[in-house]
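Now for a typical sample entry:
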Amino acid sequence: MKILFVTDLYKIKEDSTIPDAIENFALALKEKGKDIFVLRPNFLVNSKKRKRKIFPQGIYHRNGIKIYNRNIQIPFYFLNSNCSYLEEKYDLIISHMPMGHIFAYFINKKLKLKRISIVHISDYHVFNRIFYCLYFKKNLMTSLQKSDLVGARNKFLKEYFRADFILPSFIEKKYIIERKKLNDDFIQGKKIKLVTLSQLIKRKNLDKVILALNEIKKQNNFDFIYDIYGKGEQNEQLNKLIKNLNLEKNIRILPYINHNLIYETLDNYDVFILPSVYETFGIAYLEAMARGLITIGTYNTGIDGIIKDSQNGFLVRGDEEKITKEIYQTLLKIQKLSKEQKEKITQNTYKTIQNYEKEKIMNKYVEIIKKIL
């Protein structure tokens, strides 16, 4: 079976500004014996805005997958594309992201294949932000309506788009531990070691975490360290905030971690926190849960529905005016939990994360693909 992925959010070379999620799905299907190809309609204005490296138009290879990179100057100039650059005969198109869905719809007028569209938070923005509405909404709506199936990356998106199924991120079984040994200081409520793995951008709300921790220090609630691994446009701003609050001894911003070091790094901490808004899913949550960390996410994002507040983790509301207070109160709640309560949450985390093992998620996905064909 030959599957053509159509998406602009696919790496040609290593690039921290592009998430791994879509490539992970492509590689997982390749492991299942599918022949995978990628058509990458790269809207140049979008790439420049997000400071992504722009590659010349042409054919590239990454991890055994052929990538057709098509650079687009003006939206929808490709409406009458003849697809002559596509060298294979495919059985199925799977598209991700707004530009991918729209491009897939128009090329499929000639290819006439079955088509699955997987919606992300970016697709939601097209329907709810004025700029995107003007340029993309009509074409995106048509593309999704003409898809044979629509999948959603989380519960919120499934309900909004009335999608046919949810396609969550996954974690490899070998990274999941059954029981984490809790640190004595954490058990006794004396000290919490917190960690975040993330791009340093505004919607991640890392400044709100710092402000909440500053309040904890002022109130002398408990001792803590907080390490942030990542890079991004807010690096300087966050470092300045840490310095102004005299939190240099408690909070550090560290370089982004190579993937093969993520799990052993997470093992050094008690709590993972990422109160991000407009998060499609966030593989970092699953990575933290796989290592038994108590995990804090945000309501109405990808992790909502997987984390159940106070049962297998905690959720805060992303409201701009309340989020700092909610983070503060949640951290106090965690600190005051008994040993038995903390162990219960980590046990529940283990039960939850087993549902997101790679083999289980991909077997379900392959069955969906088989049915559509």
